[in-house]
Amino acid sequence: MGKPAPRGNDQKAFVKAFNTICQWNSPWERWNDMVTLFSIEIANTVDAVHREKRNETYAAIARRYRPEEFRRFADLFAELTLALDRNPFQDFLGSMYMELELGSKAHGQCFTPYGVCQCMANMAMPEEHVKLQLEKSGWISVNDCACGAGATLIAAAERLFQIGINYQRQALFVAQDLDHAVAMMCYIQLSMIGCAGRVRIGDTLLDPDCGDILLGDGKSATWYTPMLYLSDIWRGRLTARFLDRMLSGSGPKAEQNEAKAYQEAEGASAFAQKAEQAPVLVEARKKGRKASEGQLMFDLTGG
After folding, report:
1. Which residues contact 19 (CB under 8 A, 6 or more apart)?
2. Distance between CA 196 and CA 200 in Å, rounded?
3. Is the model's pTM score more than 0.90?
């Protein structure tokens, strides 16, 4: 493996903040706790069905750290937010994960460089083909069944952006990975750049995501991004699909539970909910995040 690319200011700030967290825990344990906390914070803004169980996991992690150490996770989230504000189209967490040598050698983890992902996205998504699909259905789906930290999906979002397509409104991103930590990394990054979709944790061969393309299976191993709930256009598509399946008698219990979550989320403000529930995101905002530019997570211009 070649030498890692030189760290930029964002990477340096992130690594510095990461290294201030409890030195008694291994770097991998701290990283896994970090991505789990971030994912729960994001998912809890909209997913009421699994909120209680995930909060139990959140509290269990918090108990492993002293209060002053636990608050440093907020600094990490702030650094990540600022980095993606400045450059949303990058595999920030994936590059940090590999640079910190946290990848599993046993599983052969070696993330595809983002530049290669950009090349693949450009070849796999010709402008004419994508726009033809959009004319037929109004939206397209993009899938990665071994997603890692999500670099290929982020590159696909960038490709759509470059050819003038609003990926937040016209693309559904579906991902899966066996490794919990990297799947959470993918979920965080897709959520923060405003991709609508889901990330499933599990073996793609033995336990694939076989749910409805829009609704998914509603299980706790499937994590839905906020954009899927908060965008009017995606809520409309979800409602129409759910009603169609209910009328046809094909909607399983898991999908009914997920539809309940959609209904509870409708009309709610993610930021208002977080002010009451989750200190990490609130404290991160206090660090002076600039207003989002472009198609970032909660920039719902035009619905």
Report:
1. none
2. 14
3. no
